Structure formats: structure tokens, C-alpha cells
Amino acid sequence: MNDLGKEAVFLVPIVLIIYAAIVIIASFDYRLKKQILNSDRTDLDISKILAKKPANGTELLKWGLITLFGGIGLVVLAYIPYPYFSPLPYGVEAIFLSIGFLSYYFVVRKQESKDQD
Hints:
- It is a single chain.
- The chain is mainly alpha-helical.
- The protein has helices spanning 3-38, 44-51, 58-79, 88-116.
- The protein folds into 2 domains: 1-52; 54-117.
- Helix 3 runs antiparallel to helix 4 (88-116).
- The protein starts with a helix and ends with a helix.
- The mean pLDDT is 81.
């Protein structure tokens, strides 16, 4: 088995566990809000919980762009030769993650300017 196969053996279960955790958290959050609404209680704290805005996609966009550019940075590092104790990989990865954050910022800013018009 090559190195990629060995890494995939460990990576696939980790990704599946993360996705399962996200689904479980979302379903419990939905059930909790549903029970609060059905309890016929009015309280300031309850209204704060229910008033929390649902994700409009910008959070997903942010993490998608960050992981995309982080992955691109790791792919670029695979093709750049560097000494073992070099700080170069940290700098390259930081640059690509920063590009991801900046691209998210500009997309959200453009979206907000469209909403104001």
C-alpha cells in the first residue's frame, strides 16, 4: 500500500466522525428550539435563543474558502523543496490562509453593498 492509501485509512474515519458530529449538533439544536416553542413559556432568555439568526451561508462560505486555500497551500508545499527546520512551510500556509480570509472579506463586503442598494 502506498503512502496515500495509508493516510486515507486514517483520514476517512476522521472526516466521517466530523460530519456525523455536525449533523447531530444541528438536529439537537432544532429539537431544543422546537421544545422551547412548544413549552408556551415567554422569557427574555428564550427570546434571545430563538432570535439568533440562522446561518445565511456566509459562515459556510468563510470556512469553505479557508479550507480551500489551506488545501491549495498544502499542495503548493508539496512541490516546493525546503530544508527540514525551515519556517518556509508555515509562511506559505499562513499566506494562503490569509488569502482565503481576504477573499471571504471581499465577498461579504460586496454582498453587503448590494443589500444596501
